[in-house]
Amino acid sequence: MIKIDGSFGEGGGQILRTAVALSCITGKEVEVFNIRANRPKPGLAPQHLKGIEAAKLISNAQVEGLRLGSTRIVFKPKSVRGGDYKIDIGTAGSVTLILQTILPPLLIADKPSRLELIGGTDVAWSPSIDYFEKVTLRALRDMNCYPRLKIVARGYYPKGGGKVILEVDPEKLRGYEFLELKDKIEGVSHCQNLPEHVAIRQKESLIRFLMEKGLSAEIKVEVLSGISTGSGITVWSGYKGGSALGEKGKRAEEVGLEAARNFYAEFSTKAAFDSHLADQIMVFGAIASGRTRYTTTKITGHQKSNRYVINSFLGEILKLDESERIVEIKGTG
User: Going by CATH, does the domain composed of 81-171 fall within 3.65.10.20?
Assistant: First the structure.
């Protein structure tokens, strides 16, 4: 059994997601202890619980410690099964974080899968659904991975209610050496149950900032109605992106400016990947055939956590060069 210390490094949910995903893929039982020990509320939060439940569903696993607040789980998977799955998080928990847990295993499933996920599409501390579609899936296509995503409805904190559908075929991933990809800058500014001017002001604020840097962007505006109320904006180019969310008392101009600054800090470097994509691709690189290599804007705690978990399962296959900000993964596929 693989034993993973959930308090390693930044000690967040990333360790849990990667450990459960790799357990499904390798068939190795895993114990994760000290789960989120360094957080104000240690143990499993509802979102982590749902991610493990989803992995249990697709792998017919036995799980010990599957309850709110648990600081230890033991996950014992069987074979990963494709099929039609509906996963309702029940809150505004992030659908993209659920996908980080179950998408890699579904690539080795016995047949194609169709996922319907209900929860938060645009929520704090997680990639927005637009980032996942336009940046994460963009990079995966270069590794011979072609999931098909449809955004049916957006969900914001606290009510959630967003819905996405993802279709996944089992794929043989290939390692890839990623180089900097300069592409046109695009984005989407959205609001739900709010006046149109909110999304427009977010867009205009972002565009003004980028124009001052000598850049232009094509930003769509979405004005929606739905279960939850909120707004946000995501901007991307190639393997880099940035986003920001509206909240009560936060002016729309601030939201646009925040997204623009987040994006520009990553886009303006010579690195191939932004710092968020750099950790999201690691598990895929680990199960691909051949070598995956890329530079990143910075080495983060999430990347170090992923290295710890991946190397615990598969040996010393992932290296981080902190001085040159290079990630190199010797795939095991």
Answer: yes
